[in-house]
Amino acid sequence: MKTNLIIIFIIALFASVSYAQTPATVSAKVVTANLKVYGNCGMCKSRIEKALDTKGVKQAKWNPTTKNLEVVYVPSKITERKIQELVSAVGHDTDSTKAPDAVYAKLPFCCLYRDHDHSGMDDNKKHD
Questions:
Q1: What is the pTM of this model?
Q2: Helix/strand/coil (H/E/C) assignment for every residue in 12-61
Q3: CATH number belonging to the domain at 28-111, selected among 3.10.310.10, 3.30.70.100, 3.40.50.12780, 3.10.450.700
Q4: Which of 6, 9, 67, 70 has the most Cβ atoms closer than 10 angstroms to its Cβ?
Q5: What is the residue-level pLDDT of the chain in tens, covering all 128 positions?
């Protein structure tokens, strides 16, 4: 009988320790940021979101109409500043960082947001 009580106690102890480290405690450390990121089209969307496929970023969704980038990330693994730098490195300005001119110049014409008005362009057509 004593052996059964000891075994039950040990099982209960291990169960309580493993419960304390469930993913629910990790999710409490996730933050959502909304950033202004400049671009025009579906290719921009793909490029911006792909740039944030990195450690610490859980989700990145960019809206071409509103220019809003919603990023869900873990601040202990990546900073908001680093997120903006990653986006700028692929050719897209944010309110706080500017893409290098050489990188921006290599973007397809439909993605050039600084000097060109692309209103009325069909996002599904190829442009030279």
A1: 0.71
A2: HHHHHHHHCCCHHHHHCCCEEEEEEECCCCHHHHHHHHHHCCCCCEEEEE
A3: 3.30.70.100
A4: 67
A5: 666 656 665 666 565 554 444 454 445 599 999 999 999 999 999 999 999 999 999 999 999 999 999 999 999 999 999 999 999 999 999 999 999 999 999 999 999 999 766 555 554 444 44
